[in-house]
Write a structure and sequence with these properties.
With 474 residues, the chain is an alpha+beta fold. Among the domains are: 166 residues, no CATH class; 81 residues, no CATH class. It contains 16 helices and twelve strands. Strands 2, 6, 7, 8, 9 and 10 form a six-stranded antiparallel β-sheet that branches. It has a two-stranded antiparallel sheet with strand order 1-3. A two-stranded antiparallel sheet has the order 4-5. A hairpin with a 5-residue loop joins strand 6 and strand 7. The structure holds adenosine monophosphate (AMP) and magnesium ion. The site of magnesium ion has 3 residues, from loops.
Length: 474
């Protein structure tokens, strides 16, 4: 049976200056590495049994019926500096499908060859970042955090050349609510292409926010979703790594897992990305950076407004209100982690006190919170007495809660994709062994279960296993 994706492409209906129509550059020997059958089913994709056909299609060698491959153009602030033109330099949007819940999803190939937006890049990806994104994005989904998904990974049978030398090439198929970014709005705003900006605005509203009325309302909604999203990242110890405005999705999904990592030992200033020299995107800076990114979004929306001075005033107020919103989302997310379902303002201090003690005591982020419900939290601290002091106040507060254990169990994962396990998985995959990848995918699909056979995946890295830097993979 041939593979059937019921494409229904809307982005390709936008004016031609929104993208470049483009085919993937065929690769030598496509071989299927991973296929997300559950996601495929939700997307109504039929005929996924033919692995040869899957490999050819998701390597870009064969264009499936109904696809209109294109590279999207966008701009973006990268580490604070504005690039007026970026775009899909190694990705192609095949088209859109409407899933079983009626939700429109983009099907995108990443690593499919050069496009007019590749600049100095080769348009390719290697197996490491492809499998990293596959595992981490699916783990985020299982944690209930809005994210793009991974549908397929295919090895190309061709080498790609990076600093580390010659590496196996691969293509990831990414599924997203859309790939509209803050940077997409910035692209049209920076060119003073008001007609393009309006078309993008109308398209975005129809696709993501049909109930909203006007740009201010759109800004407020995106701020709401992004505040919630970043609070959720913080609550599971995620460091996105490249929160450039081109990697901030208007849908409110997590997008672009380059150097993204979960931290082991808690420290608020943790940075993994090899290119983030000044810690702009450090763990606890994420709550500030997203406000800055929303300010850039607001700026790009201003030209849509008839009275621009009034708009600037209104948008500024929305952006200025964002930190309080993030704080409220943060408090809610972390309160659940300590068993409090409906936090009051005073609970913030209890959470902050625990985090300060965790940083001081070099406690493992994931295991400490999980141990609050399964037992043994004090053993996570260099000085367990530091936990005991906090625990007394916490227990007194918990007496007012009805089901703190259930709340904690649902908020504190037992297992996360730890950096060193991801690296070990990549090393094995490069050597041709996919068993660690498959095992990670299996265990991470149920992150709130304490599976006895997954104890090794819960363990923090030994000193020799600690991964200090992650890479964009470009
Ligand atoms: P990122 O930091 O991964 O979000 O990428 C930033 C920009 O660089 C995007 O426009 C990418 O399409 C482009 N890019 C990244 N890697 C490559 C590559 N290997 N070849 C071409 N373009 C790339
Ligand atoms: Mg990107």
């Amino acid at each position: 049976m041939t593979l059937v994706l019921s494409f229904d492409n809307s982005y390709a209906q936008l004016p031609p200056r929104f993208y470049t129509r483009q085919s993937a550059v065929p690769v030598r020997a496509p071989r299927l590495v991973a296929w997300n059958a559950g996601l495929a089913e939700a997307l109504g994709i039929e005929g996924g049994e033919d692995t040869g056909a899957l490999a050819r299609i998701f390597a870009g060698n064969e264009v499936p019926e109904g696809a209109t491959p294109l590279a999207q153009v966008y701009a973006g602030h990268q580490f604070g500096g504005f690039s007026p033109q970026l775009g899909d330099g190694r990705a192609l949007l095949l088209g859109e499908v409407v899933d079983s819940n009626g939700q429109r999803r983009d099907i995108q190939l990443k690593g499919s060859g050069p496009t007019p937006y590749s600049r100095m890049g080769d348009g390719r990806a290697w197996l490491g970042p492809v499998l990293r994104e596959y595992v981490v994005s699916e783990a985020m989904h299982a944690l209930g955090i809005p994210t793009t998904r991974a549908l397929a990974a295919v090895e190309t049978g061709e080498p790609v050349y990076r600093e580390a030398g010659s590496l196996p090439g691969a293509v990831l198929t990414r599924v997203a609510s859309s790939h509209i970014r803050v940077g997409t709005f910035q692209y049209f705003a920076a060119r003073r292409d008001l007609e393009g900006l309006r078309a993008l605005y109308d398209y975005t509203v129809t696709r993501h926010y049909p109930q909203i009325e006007g740009p201010a309302h759109l800004l407020a909604e995106v701020i709401r979703r992004q505040a919630r999203l970043v609070a959720r990242w913080l609550s599971v110890g995620v460091i996105h790594g490249v929160m450039n405005t081109d990697n901030t999705a208007i849908s409110g999904e997590t997008i672009d897992y380059g150097p993204c990592a979960f931290m082991d030992t808690y420290h608020p200033q943790t940075v993994y990305s090899s290119i983030d020299a000044h810690g702009r995107y450090a763990y606890d800076n994420q709550a500030h950076v997203i406000v800055w990114n929303m300010a850039q979004f607001a700026t790009a929306l201003v030209p849509l407004m008839p009275d621009q001075d009034a708009a600037i005033e209104e948008f500024t107020a929305l952006v200025h209100a964002m930190p309080d919103r993030i704080e409220a989302e943060w408090r809610r997310a972390f309160a659940a982690k300590i068993g409090i379902a409906e936090p009051g303002p005073e609970d913030g201090a209890l959470i902050a006190d625990l985090l300060a003690r965790m940083a001081e005591g070099q406690a493992d982020f994931t295991n400490t919170f999980r141990a609050l419900v399964t037992g043994g939290a004090r053993d996570q601290f260099l000085d367990p007495a530091a936990f005991d002091v906090w625990e007394a106040g916490w227990r007194a507060r918990l007496a007012q809660e009805r089901e703190p254990e259930a709340v904690m169990r649902a908020a504190n994962p037992s297992v996360i994709p730890r950096n060193h396990r991801v690296e070990q998985m990549i090393e094995a995959a490069v050597a041709g062994d996919l068993a660690p990848f498959e095992r990670l995918m299996d265990v991470l699909s149920a992150p709130f279960e304490d599976r006895p056979d997954a104890a090794d995946l819960r363990r923090p890295p030994a000193a020799s296993e600690i991964v200090r830097a992650t890479f964009c993979g470009t």
